[in-house]
Amino acid sequence: MVKAVVLGASGGIGQPLSLLLKASPLVDELALYDVVNTPGVAADLSHISSTAKITGYLPKDDGLKNALTGADIVVIPAGIPRKPGMTRDDLFKINAGIVRDLATGIAAHSPKAFVLVISNPVNSTVPIAAEVLKAAGVFDPKRLFGVTTLDVVRAETFTQVYSGKKVPSDATVPVIGGHSGPTIVPLFSKVSPKFEIPADKYEDLVHRVQFGGDEVVKAKDGAGSATLSMAYAGFRFAEAVIKASKGEKGIVEPTFVYLPGVAGGDEIVKATGVEFFSTPVELGPNGAEKAINILDGVTAREQELIAEAIKGLQTNIETGVQFIKNPATK
Ligand SMILES: NC(=O)c1ccc[n+]([C@@H]2O[C@H](COP(=O)([O-])OP(=O)(O)OC[C@H]3O[C@@H](n4cnc5c(N)ncnc54)[C@H](O)[C@@H]3O)[C@@H](O)[C@H]2O)c1
Ligand SMILES: O=C(O)C[C@H](O)C(=O)O
């Protein structure tokens, strides 16, 4: 039996993500939580004939507790999205508190669940969730993930656009680092099986992967950021976590994790100097079983991109950690 919970289920990401989870044969029970509209969204989805039993909760009547109790996997797309001219870090002021409060609920009501954080800025909201879980004494680094799958999906898509060739279906373009502008580092040299990127397209391709989110924010013109592609990516990652938890072997996805708590992570901390980092992670029954170090043998240009990413990440991570450790200074 798998119980999935979506926190922020009535939003632009939350609704299509809930639709995909409701339609999935991997999910037996689906609980939707938001500060608005969940009874309606749940009623609507309940008419779909897939097997997942669905319920909707609002904050009243212990809604968060009831949604989370018994959860195996909790996906968090709660929080405000960007408008043109904003960076993801501009969302911190509001979203940091939202993620802190939801993580507090998870610590109390579903401390063993896999927690997938979508809310931006991911580079800071994941450290916030980690600090909340640590303070409650229930932090398991193998079970907390920042969802960076949309960067991987974009890298796969744009690679095809720029090369004019189909990326083999068994190939993943690894994207490492974090989830904002220059902290996003696609490693085209590490695509396996090998896939040549035309040299004259390389810089444009990297830029599109790093700033793909801005393209959508601009096109939506004040109506938010990526929602449908994010729901697709969020579902892809949630499905990977669920399949691995059921024993399926060989599932590897890049994701933003707390490295010191994941096997293989220390080596990456040594190389980067940061404790939270997105890297390909082998998933298993307990979550993140192994952080895979793909930093060796990257190109000189990729080396530069990684150094730039680390600078940004250091600040973002510290901002998140301090928000919980020293709330008075915020
Ligand atoms: N990780 C990624 O790759 C990625 C991609 C796209 C968007 N995002 C981020 O995801 C977040 C959501 O984006 P969206 O477009 O769905 O926004 P949205 O405004 O459409 O939806 C957010 C939902 O969160 C709900 N919410 C607010 N406070 C809440 C709380 N305390 N508890 C529960 N629900 C709460 C709102 O009511 C709303 O329904 C944003 O922060 C956005 O930047 C991340
Ligand atoms: O760009 C955004 O603000 C949303 C999201 O992080 C994205 O990459 O699309």
Automatic annotation (TrEMBL):
InterPro entries noted in UniProt: L-lactate/malate_DH (IPR001557), Lactate/malate_DH_C (IPR022383), Lactate/malate_DH_N (IPR001236), Lactate_DH/Glyco_Ohase_4_C (IPR015955), Malate_DH_type1 (IPR010097), NAD(P)-bd_dom_sf (IPR036291)
MF GO annotations: L-malate dehydrogenase (NAD+) activity
Alphabetical UniProt keywords: NAD, Oxidoreductase, Tricarboxylic acid cycle
One of the record's GO cellular component terms: cytosol
Residue ranges occupied by any Lactate/malate dehydrogenase N-terminal domain in the UniProt entry: 3-146
Residues involved in substrate binding: R82, R88, N120, R154
A Pfam family annotated for this UniProt entry: Ldh_1_C
Family matches, as SUPFAM superfamilies: LDH C-terminal domain-like, NAD(P)-binding Rossmann-fold domains
Protein name: malate dehydrogenase
Species of provenance: Penicillium malachiteum
